[in-house]
Write the structure tokens for this entry.
Amino acid sequence: MKKLLKMENIERYYETPAGVVKALDGINIDIHEGERVILLGPSGSGKTTLLNCFSALDSPTNGKYTFKENKVPRHNSEKMTSFRRENIGYVFQFFNLLQDLTVMENILLIQELAGERDSERAEQLLTLVGLESEKDRFPGEISGGQQQRVAIARSIAKKPTLLLGDELTGNLDTETSDKVMQVLVEACSDEEITLIIVTHDESLVKYATRVIRIDSGKIVSDEQVDH
Ligand SMILES: Nc1ncnc2c1ncn2[C@@H]1O[C@H](COP(=O)(O)OP(=O)(O)O)[C@@H](O)[C@H]1O
Ligand SMILES: [Mg+2]
């Protein structure tokens, strides 16, 4: 498999009135194209901080981060924004759909922001997540699980190389969460998207090709999963 990204000795420190918090404390990681990584760790272990470094939403204090062999921009919001726009998709815990737009319009808007509106592809994506019949509904008229599937379709619409999810099933019951994960895994393999999900939910391990555990800002285990 081809290497997608590499982090070397990444540290992220926060200065707080109580002292320095080492949210990331020497992270070394290689991710290859097509991997589905579940990043597990207790609350406060540094998962969100690490995800924000992957996406260049945040810059590490120290260390080297390369993506497709190029240095990822840091401390430069314009370059970081264009890095994200070109490479990264994001799915959040609370879906973040625009409530005044229909399901279809939520997808079309993202396409427009990315520079090309393509309603045929938008319909394809909604079919991929099993929501073609809900396309004219508003987010408030469908269930949480369905909203998260719309959010997945939306995050895939701009063809990201890397899709990141932060506790994306955290707001769903077990059955719905399974349906959402199945849809996500299938969509990512169809579209050849690499996936990194952070969670504290052990039951998501079955969807991963690799499980990385983090505690106190350090990787404590990193294993391939056999299915
Ligand atoms: N903006 C911040 N300022 C100060 N400390 C922070 C900030 N963000 C996160 N932290 C601290 O960094 C550590 C890791 O946080 P986080 O990455 O949010 O963990 P997780 O997502 O695993 O719950 C925690 O101790 C948290 O309190
Ligand atoms: Mg978090």
User: Anything to note?
Assistant: Strands lie at 3-16, 19-32, 36-40, 62-67, 70-71, 88-91, 162-166, 194-199, 210-215, 218-224.
